[in-house]
Amino acid sequence: MLHNHGTFIISLDFELYWGVHDVMSIEEYKENLLGARRAVPKLLEMFEEYHIHATWAAVGLLFFRTKQEMMQSLPKLRPRYQNRAFSAYEKMGLLGDQEENDPYHFASSLIKKISNYKYQEIATHTFSHYYCLEEGQTEEEFEADLIAALNIGKEQGFSIKTIIFPRNQVNEKYLSICKKHGIISYRGNEKHMIYEPASFAAGNLPLKRIIRMADTYLNITGRHIYSAERAASTPLINLSSSRFLRPYHPNLKILDSLRLKRIKNSLTAAAKERKIYHLWWHPHNFGKNLEENMAFLKEIIEHYIMLKKTYGMEALNMAEAAEKLNSIKNK
Question: Origin, by domain of life (predicted)?
């Protein structure tokens, strides 16, 4: 049972250009976006080699093969953010005709590839990379967006059970909507004030950003491991984040040993105390410096394998973990 072992959860926010609202052009982020297409197969190969179960939360707009298919499936009710730059629908003019000539907005082939590997869960990152805490949008608009995401998933054979909220903007009011439509788990934020769900303006305050960066290398806010009981204490299973896996940066290479130690120490504590550790990132984070990022991840996973052998730690995707927790609750 889940409560008898430490649990290692990995989730990836798969969004390509739909989630990059604050970059001026595709050209400026091109290396990361195209690099994500190299990273995804590499990640899948590593997960298969080490029997890692992972959750891939994909933006619904990525499921389509062509622009025509996409335009026919857009929800009639769309978010009316005060800041229109947040809306994916403002980017429709950038679209090519299909994935072959627009690898930034379409990813049907990649989603299919992910689903062909064992233990990989396809989850939703909402349909339009929906921001749940920004001014202007409403509960009704979120529900329309969620329904659209679940519909395109169902059309392609996926029964979606997990949601990852874009920019970690968890809106407590929307959890009942998720449960209503069959979602059983979500990724909440770390339990600390600097990680509390917030709008862009509140979340990007300079002091918060500095502390979050320092927390990557030094244990400032705690280990962020938690019990199965805590995760199961809410109607929708909250498999909250333990750590965002920041990508390799050559200017910060000298600090990478601290970054790795921070993760390993918390992962070890989770294994020993039979708690949950949840690591997450975006595939496009690995788009640049792919070899360095993969080598760093390999060290984490090999540490997990040691913990598995020593303490019985297990890797589960979010749906698997939530289903086990629900079975415990319902006994």
Answer: Bacteria
Instruction: Find the mean pLDDT for residues 16-26.
Output: 74
> Is residue 161 within 8 Å of residue 182, measured between CB atoms?
yes
User: Whole-model pTM?
Assistant: 0.96
Nearest partner of 56 among 64, 47, 65, judged by Cα: 47
3-class secondary structure, 192 = coil
DSSP 245-269: -PPP-GGGGGGHHHHHHHHHHHHHH
Q: Can you read off the two tokens belonging to residue 140?
A: 């009704």
Q: How confident is the model at residue 24 (pLDDT cuts 50, 70, 90)?
A: low
What are the boundaries of each domain within the chain?
A: 2-329
On the 0-12 / 13-18 / 19+ scale of CB atoms within 10 A, 254 is: exposed
Residue 279's DSSP bridge partners are 10, 243
Per the CB < 8 A criterion, the answer to whether 109 and 99 are in contact is: yes
- The answer to whether the CB of 121 falls within 8 A of the CB of 56 is yes
pLDDT in tens, 180-189: 999 999 999 9
**How many CA atoms lie within 13 Å of 110's alpha carbon, on the beta-carbon side?**
32
